[in-house]
Amino acid sequence: MATGARIAMNTAIAPMTTDVLTLSQLLSPSFPVGAFAYSHGLETAINDGLIEDADSLQDWLLALLEQGSLRADAVLLNAAYGSADPLIDASARAFASSSERLMETDLQGAAFCETVLAVWGHDLGRLCYPVAVGGIAAKLDLDVELATAMYLQATLGNLIAAAMRLVPLGQVDGQKVQAALKPFCTEIAAQLRDATLDDLHNAAWMSDIVAMQHETQYSRIFRS
Amino acid sequence: MTAHFPIAPKQKLQRAHGVLNISAQQDVGGVSRLKNLRQQGSYRAIFPRTISGNVEAVIINTAGGVTGGDNFSTTAVAHENAGLSLTTQAAERIYRAPDKTAGLMKTSLSVQKDAQMYWLPQETILFDGSRLKRRLDVDLHANAKFLMVEPLVFGREASGETLRSGALNDRVCIAIDAQPIYLDRIKLDGDIASQLGRTAIANGARAMANIVMVDPNAKPLLDQVRALLPACAGASLLGDTTLVVRILAADSFVLRTAIVPILTLLTNNAVPKNWRL
């Protein structure tokens, strides 16, 4: 009995382990999408004093996860996982709140699609970043909830790394913020399983405004 | 000894409804004229004389506001070459919903070839306990021009009205030949005032507006619009023809003060009179 149970458990875990490895490759900072070049408006928020330490950074990112662009990305990822309807990518573009936001999702998505085609042989076309991630997760039959949680974690990791270059925030503080936001990544991924375009919304207007203002910021090191 | 009282019949709440259909076309002399007008229920439209050459419609809600279960619908069409400008006579007040039913406001706009439309309603004010579901669908021809503003005011704190509970489900979709080019969706529930206090959301602001212009000449206007913006606002260009502006303000008056100069620029000085400060 015990042996049988162990075998059953192992076969249940094995595909999930493979999923984790595939997703950690797709969403790794070394996957060539150029994520390090984008601050998502954080550069302006920090310049304006809206974010000045680990706490204010964590608050800002949590708002994006719960009510802003990161949640919207998770919705798009799930919608694209469930359907290959071109309306999903068109909606992702129409939902981009400014030209740099559009550039961010368009260029990262295009680079992601090119690499996926070269490595896995799946032609996704040219899709916005979360739509492309949802698309390949479906094609490779990866668990969508896991893909969403890991996408959110990776995107947060990139934004925290950007913030660490701009505010006096140590490596350890950055990791504390990342760890504190982890439960929200899993919670939101569970909530948004099977989400459709109808679940797309955003209220992070201040975040959108600083992303717009970044376009004319005098001195900047990030592309957004 | 159990007394059997008849259960009081649930009181049916008075619901308001309004339907407005407006269309404008160009006459043989090249002047925009009203083509069709249908007004039903609590919606009326008046047409002040203007010098802009557009048909200007001012929408009046004779019910004096919107509450739960109300249903308002507006449809407007600018036919080929016509100019149609729509506004509201007053700010739209969204009152406490007596039950959990939302009030519904649905607007469908269509702008045909070489036509132009302005959708410039005054503020929508959400009172504590209000529930609103709103849809704005705009269908544009590839050679049409469109300008819109949607100012939202969350409570009226000067009158002690804080938005501690309520629900807003709002969607704006602008499409060219059925392809979405601009999509904005807001879903707020519960203690909205607290949520607006979050830095990345509204940083404590109680009023917000988005302005969208779709026009082949939008690009050169971007710098001029930016020069008019208050501190807490941004403008950007999506593609080469869609100009977007987002403004956050402490209250309705500050928001209006920011909006009027931008609309004055973008309408080439044809802002409806009731918008004036």
TrEMBL record, chain A:
PANTHER family: UREASE ACCESSORY PROTEIN F. Belongs to the UreF family. Pfam families: UreF (PF01730). Keywords: Chaperone, Cytoplasm, Nickel insertion. UreD, UreF and UreG form a complex that acts as a GTP-hydrolysis-dependent molecular chaperone, activating the urease apoprotein by helping to assemble the nickel containing metallocenter of UreC. The UreE protein probably delivers the nickel. It is found in: Cytoplasm. This is Urease accessory protein UreF.
From TrEMBL, chain B:
It is found in: Cytoplasm. Keywords: Chaperone, Cytoplasm, Nickel insertion. InterPro entries: UreD. It comes from the Bacteria. One of its GO terms (molecular function) is nickel cation binding. Pfam families: UreD (PF01774). GO terms for cellular component: cytoplasm. Its main location: cytoplasm. UreD, UreF and UreG form a complex that acts as a GTP-hydrolysis-dependent molecular chaperone, activating the urease apoprotein by helping to assemble the nickel containing metallocenter of UreC. The UreE protein probably delivers the nickel. Belongs to the UreD family. Required for maturation of urease via the functional incorporation of the urease nickel metallocenter. PANTHER family: UREASE ACCESSORY PROTEIN D. This is Urease accessory protein UreD.
